[in-house]
Specification:
Largest sheet: none
Radius of gyration: 19 Å
Distance between the termini: 52 Å
Order of helices and strands: HHHH
Helix content: 55-70%
Shape: elongated
Number of domains: 1
Strand content: under 5%
C-alpha cells in the first residue's frame, strides 16, 4: 500500500502535534530565557533581553508568551534583590548575598533554558509575579 505522490506532505509543512509545543515556540522560549545572560555585557541587559523578546512574540506564540512572562518577572525580582543586597553591602553581609544571588540567578536561568528547549513550562521559584 503506497501513498500517491500528491498526498505526501514535506516535514516542514506538517502542523505541530496536538497539545504539544511547536519547535518554533520552544526556540523562542529558549532565547527568551537565555537572553538574560546579556546582562554580562550590557547594564540591565538581564531585564532588557527577555523583555524585548517577550514583547515581540507574546501575541503570536502562547508558550513563548508564558515563558517570556516568567523570564521577565524573575529578572525584575533578581534586580530588586540585587538592590537590597547592594544596600546591605554597607553592613558587609551584602557582599555574600550578592554572590549567592548571582549563583542562584545563573543556575535558575540555565534550568529554565533547558526546560524551555524540552517544551516543559518552567516556573522560577521565589519570583514576584509582576506580569500576570
Amino acid at each position: 500500500m503506497s501513498v500517491p505522490p500528491d498526498q505526501i506532505v514535506p516535514p516542514s509543512m506538517t502542523p505541530p502535534p496536538v497539545g504539544g509545543v511547536s519547535p518554533e515556540e520552544r526556540q523562542w522560549a529558549l532565547f527568551t530565557h537565555l537572553s538574560a545572560l546579556i546582562g554580562f555585557f550590557i547594564p540591565f541587559g538581564n531585564l532588557i533581553g527577555p523583555l524585548v523578546l517577550w514583547l515581540i512574540k507574546k501575541d503570536t506564540l502562547p508558550y513563548a508568551n508564558s515563558q517570556g512572562k516568567e523570564a521577565v518577572n524573575f529578572n525584575i525580582t533578581v534586580a530588586l534583590a540585587a538592590v537590597v543586597c547592594a544596600v546591605l553591602c554597607l553592613v558587609v553581609i551584602g557582599f555574600f548575598l550578592l554572590i549567592a544571588l548571582f549563583v542562584l540567578w545563573l543556575v535558575f536561568v540555565i534550568m529554565a533554558t533547558v526546560n524551555a528547549s524540552n517544551g516543559v513550562a518552567y516556573r522560577y521559584p521565589m519570583t514576584i509575579r509582576f506580569i500576570q
